[in-house]
Every structure is written in C-alpha cells, then in structure tokens.
C-alpha cells in the first residue's frame, strides 16, 4: 500500500484505548412506532402483511436483540428500521425517529451503519488495510492521514485486533482470521465512520457459542464506552450471550410477543403461566413457546402464540413502550438544536474511484495463484494455436488457414472473457454492501472498474499516484495476457512478419478483451448469478461468432442478422481489423498452372494480392481508426448500460 499505518508517527495519544471520535454526543434515542411491512404474494398477488404494528425504543449505550423463529420477520424489521427496504416491492408504514425527528435518508445514512450477516470483507487485504480503505471511502477529505490512522488504531485496540493488524483476512487458498475475528473486523470497519446507530444482521451466525460471546462482548464494550445504539437480529443465542443485551424484542408471525429489559423476561413469562424451567437457556425457551413450525400439536401451538401476542397487546409493558416513545417525541425541539441532520461532510467523490482502484491493485497483485493459472492457460492455448497453424506458407493454399487462425484468435480471446464473471460478481457483491451504507454509488464503482481496464503504464508508486499505479498494475495483467498470447501464436503461425503488424495484432486483441469484459459487466449486472451470467455470456459470444463475418461473409449474411446484430458485434470490427492487418500488405502465390483462387491485378504474375481476399469479404482499408472508434463506442455503451442497471437495481 502507498499509505502504510506503520509509516506514520502515532505519538503517545495512540496508547489510550478511548477513541473520542466514536463518542455519541448527539443521538439520544431511536424509536419506532406502528412499523408494518406489507408485500404482494407472488402467487395470488394479494397484499400480505409481514410485520404488524411493531413498537420499540433504544437509548444511547443500549443493545437491543431482535429475536424470533425463522420466518418471523426479524430481518425484515431490521431492514425496515435501517431504511433498507424490507423486500422488493414492499410497503413500510410507521414512524421511525431519531430523538423524535424523522430524518431524511441521507441524514440517516450518516448516523447509522449496517453490518451484513455475511462478512463483506476482501480476503486479500490485511485487517489494517481493510480498516484503512473503509476510512478512505467514508471519511471526508478534511480528515488527515494521521487522524485517520489514529482512529484505525483505536478501533484495533477496542476490538482486540492489534495483534492481527498485519494478518490477511483470508481466502479459500490462504488461511487468515478465524470466524469470530472476521466478524469483529466487519463491525470495526463500519465503526470507522463513527456511526451513532449500529445495525447487526445475525452477527453470531455461523459461530460457535464461544466465538459468539467473544464478538458480542466486544460490541457491548464499544456500545457502553462510546454510548452507541446497537440493534441486532439474533437467532437462539447462548445464555451468556443473551444476557449481554440490555433489551429484547421478541416477534413471531410478524407480531410482538415481548419487548423490554432482558432481565425481566423470566418474570414476564412467569406471569403469563409460562415459567422458564431451571437450568434452561431463557432465549431457547421463549423461542420454543413462540414457534409453531415444528410443534407436534400445531393447533395448540397456534393458540399459545395467539395468547402470547394478545397478552402483550393488553399488558402494561406495551403501554409503557408507547409512553417512552411519546417522551422521546416531546424532546423534539431539544434534539433539533443539538443535532443538525443535514450539515454533513462526505468523502471527496473524485477520490473514491482512486481508493477503489488502489484497493483493486492490492487485491490483484496478491492473487498470485489465480493470476498464474490464467497466464498458464493462455500460454498453453497460444502454443496450441501456433503449432496447429505452424509456419503457414505464402501460397494460396494457406489463405483460408490464415483466415481461420485470425478468427480463432479473436473469437477465443472474446470467449475466454467468461473467466472474468466470478471476479466481477465478487466486486459487485462488495459494491452492493458498501453502497447500501452510503459509502459510494454506482458511478464511482463503474468508473473505477472501467479505468482498471484502460491501457495506461506508470512506474510511480507514491501516494499521489495511487490511481496511476492501480490502473497500471491491473492493466499490466491484460497487457501481459495479450502479449504472451500474441507473442507465441503470431510468430509461430507466420502472420505478417512486421513489427507494426505484430503491434497492431496486439492492439486488436487487447481491445477485443476490453469489449468482451465490458459485456461481462453488463450481463453480470443484469443477472448477478454465476451460472446464469456464465451461460448468457457464452451464448452472447456464440451469437457474435455467428454474425461477425467469418462463418457467413457480410455480403451474404441474412438481412435481419446483419442489421440487428452484425454492426453492434465487437467481434465484427476486431475480425475486420485483423484481416486488414494481415492481407492488405501481403501477396500469395497461385497454384500449379497459375490457377488463382482470387482474381486480382497480380494474376498475370501468378500471384494473389491480399486486397482480393479483403474484397471478397467487402472490407476496405484505411478505416482502422474508424473501427477502433466504433469498438470504443460499443464498450462505452456496455458500461453505461451496466451503470444504469446498478443504479436502478441495488440488490
């Protein structure tokens, strides 16, 4: 990295555990009243209520657990409270307020952060780098590097990660952090923006009881010390983890069964005639009482659940919740003076793509195994192509093999771009999670993704040139692939023996690869599923091969296919360019008896001008710049459509 934490003098202030920037001095309460979520049933198209009139309140320094059986609506409620939209096409009703005020979405994003159930971490980064990039993406440019590093160090200390600061998060190939450590890094990377409200979706999912307690203990320590408001959906915690929370909201079938202090759970259920047995985990017991899915007597379980819901609605505790919420609203004027909901500074929008590029650079140069496999694959296939079309002669019998080799080289490069699908889907998943927290939008993501593929070479490694370094390194991989493939296949097949011809061949292969990867970006943005994206990209490349001009020349290609797909097919222009590069400058000898396959002005010399081959396809010379411009237009079109898809569809 161009900016290392170890390269900055942190002074004595870093020895203090307390990170004052995390202190919550503005948000005192977060309340929700009458929250209901309705969706349309996918089969009957009738409205279906997922949540019904849920109330609650969390104060500074408190942790709330949202519990319920599977399918009870706890994740839907968490998403609704976090202003994420419960589900596609859902309708959310109710008042959700901060200190009695209903904030704008922009204001809410500024004071809150959301940690996904699955860790949104890049395995090739270290813990320290993960927090550093999160800070650079989220914090305003007014926060200097020393200040940023100080915050990172404070979080590492607060979450017990100082000893793992230089450890890789971990990939399937390279072992890194444990599950509990990864979860702590996920939480810490969201706290780098100093949110006042933290939402956690199943923070203990996939962890054993010891790791779950470890993670939630650190979260509780941070919440208490810095007066943060923490709301977590959690499924069947251990007893020790359960009592780390201050409050519990128990829901089942979309309705409240209990809301209040965790230590009051047993007495409340005792009063309803459901005493918690001794030596039993209270969390496990109340989940059993509110769950009807696995009950042997479904009717009795349904009646019991209805009784729990009715008892809560009639209880004095439910009335107390409404009173607590109303008290928060009565302090609205004080809240408006203590907290400005609109005056927020954000990170510099022009620096965000640079940060994304720098992160991609670090990720890519550490991915040695995947890169090495890709290089080996292209090297092997280049040798195969070169030896199949080995040392073609300049006689007319070699004209068709030359054409076949040109088609194979360009089509193969396009088709193998499907290998980019998993990499883009991984980047897209990171974008979805980070954009949902308001770190950056589709424009910054697409700009960074596009620049990674541009041909720019630079050897500077200073922090000020992080953009150039990232583009250079990422692009070196594409350049290396094209140079290796062309360097082996071009000379073995005996294409036009000219330095300019060789460089032009490399240029067409490179632009071909950029266009093919742009198609991958569009298809994978539309269908973010590995199998579907792979299949559709392969199908599209098959279509481009059919209408590109090789299998059926443009002169006789069916009118529909010609005007519908031929001209927007990037392989069309690559194939034309390579054909002109090979045949516009060469002549070929005719067969025995001066029988020439193509009639050209060199027929009297028993030779064939390469221009005759181009004429049979209808290709003209001197249009290389025009064809490159068309190709760049196709690339830009793919990228704009991909940006539009990501902008309109963020899930």
UniProtKB/TrEMBL annotation:
Residues 1-20 are annotated as: Disordered. PROSITE patterns: ABC_TRANSPORTER_1 (PS00211), ABC_TRANSPORTER_2 (PS50893). SUPFAM superfamilies: P-loop containing nucleoside triphosphate hydrolases. It comes from the Eukaryota. The keyword Cytoplasm does not apply. One of its GO terms (cellular component) is membrane. The chain crosses the membrane at residues 368-390, 402-425, 437-457, 477-493, 505-524, 530-552, 627-646. It is a multi-pass membrane protein. Keywords: ATP-binding, Membrane, Nucleotide-binding, Transmembrane, Transmembrane helix, Transport. It is found in: Membrane. Residues 32-278 form the ABC transporter domain. One of its GO terms (molecular function) is ABC-type transporter activity. Pfam families: ABC2_membrane, ABC2_membrane_7, ABC_tran. PANTHER family: ATP-BINDING CASSETTE TRANSPORTER. This is ABC transporter domain-containing protein. It comes from Trichoglossum hirsutum. The lineage of its organism: Eukaryota, Fungi, Dikarya, Ascomycota, Pezizomycotina.
């Amino acid at each position: 990295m161009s900016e290392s934490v170890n390269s900055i003098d942190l002074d004595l202030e870093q020895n203090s555990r307390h990170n004052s920037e995390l202190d919550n001095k503005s948000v005192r309460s977060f309340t929700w009243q009458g929250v209901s979520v309705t969706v349309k049933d996918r089969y009957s198209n009738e409205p279906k209520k997922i949540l019904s009139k849920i109330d609650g309140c969390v104060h500074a320094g408190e942790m709330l657990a949202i519990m319920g059986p599977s399918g009870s609506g706890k994740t839907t409620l968490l998403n609704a409270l976090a202003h994420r939209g419960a589900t596609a096409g859902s309708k959310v009703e109710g008042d959700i307020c901060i200190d009695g005020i209903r904030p704008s979405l922009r204001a809410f994003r500024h004071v809150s952060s959301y940690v996904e159930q699955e860790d949104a971490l890049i395995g090739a980064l270290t813990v320290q780098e993960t927090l550093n990039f999160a800070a650079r993406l989220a914090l305003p440019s007014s926060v200097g590097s020393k200040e940023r590093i100080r915050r990172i160090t404070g979080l590492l200390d607060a979450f017990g990660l100082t000893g793992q600061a230089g450890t890789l998060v971990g990939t399937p190939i390279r072992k890194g952090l444990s599950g509990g450590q990864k979860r702590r890094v996920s939480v810490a990377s969201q706290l780098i923006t100093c949110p006042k409200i933290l939402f956690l979706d199943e923070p203990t999912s996939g962890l054993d009881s010891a790791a779950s307690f470890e993670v939630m203990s650190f979260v509780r320590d941070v919440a208490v010390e810095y007066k943060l408001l923490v709301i977590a959906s959690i499924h069947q915690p251990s007893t020790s983890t359960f009592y780390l929370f201050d409050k519990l909201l128990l829901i089942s079938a979309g309705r409240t069964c209990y809301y209040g202090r965790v230590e009051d759970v047993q007495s409340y259920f005792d009063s309803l005639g459901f005493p918690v047995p001794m030596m039993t985990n209270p969390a496990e017991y109340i989940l059993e009482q509110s769950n009807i899915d696995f009950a042997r007597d479904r009717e009795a379980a349904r009646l019991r659940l209805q009784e729990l819901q009715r008892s809560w609605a009639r209880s004095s505790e439910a009335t107390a919740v409404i009173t607590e919420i109303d008290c928060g609203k009565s302090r609205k004027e004080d809240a408006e003076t203590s907290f400005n909901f609109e005056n927020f500074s954000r990170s510099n929008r022009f620096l965000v793509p640079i940060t994304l590029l720098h992160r991609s650079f670090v990720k890519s140069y550490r991915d040695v195994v995947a890169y090495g496999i890709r290089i080996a694959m292209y090297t092997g296939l280049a040798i195969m192509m070169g030896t199949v079309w080995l040392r073609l002669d300049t006689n007319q019998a070699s004209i068709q093999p030359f054409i076949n080799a040109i088609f194979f080289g360009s089509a193969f490069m396009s088709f193998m771009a499907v290998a980019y699908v998993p990499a883009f889907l991984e980047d897209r998943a990171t974008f979805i999670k980070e954009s949902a927290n308001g770190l950056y939008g589709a424009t910054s993501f697409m700009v960074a993704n596009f620049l990674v593929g541009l041909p720019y070479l630079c050897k500077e490694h200073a922090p000020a040139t992080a953009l150039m370094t990232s583009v250079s390194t990422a692009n070196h991989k594409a350049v290396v692939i094209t140079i290796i493939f062309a360097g082996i296949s071009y000379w073995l097949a005996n294409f036009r023996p000219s330095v300019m011809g060789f460089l032009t061949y490399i240029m067409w292969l490179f632009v071909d690869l950029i266009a093919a990867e742009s198609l991958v970006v569009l298809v994978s943005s539309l269908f973010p599923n590995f199998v579907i994206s792979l299949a559709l990209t392969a199908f599209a490349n098959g279509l481009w091969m059919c209408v590109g001009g090789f299998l059926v020349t443009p002169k006789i290609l069916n009118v529909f296919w010609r005007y519908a797909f031929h001209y927007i097919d990037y392989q069309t222009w690559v194939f034309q360019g390579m054909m002109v590069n090979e045949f516009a400058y060469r002549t070929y000898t005719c067969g025995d008896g001066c029988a020439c396959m193509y009639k050209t002005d060199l027929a009297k010399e028993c030779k064939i001008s390469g221009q005759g081959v181009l004429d049979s396809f209808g290709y003209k010379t001197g249009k290389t710049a025009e064809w490159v411009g068309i190709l760049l237009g196709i690339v830009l079109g793919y990228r704009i459509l991909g940006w539009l898809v990501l902008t309109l569809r963020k899930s």
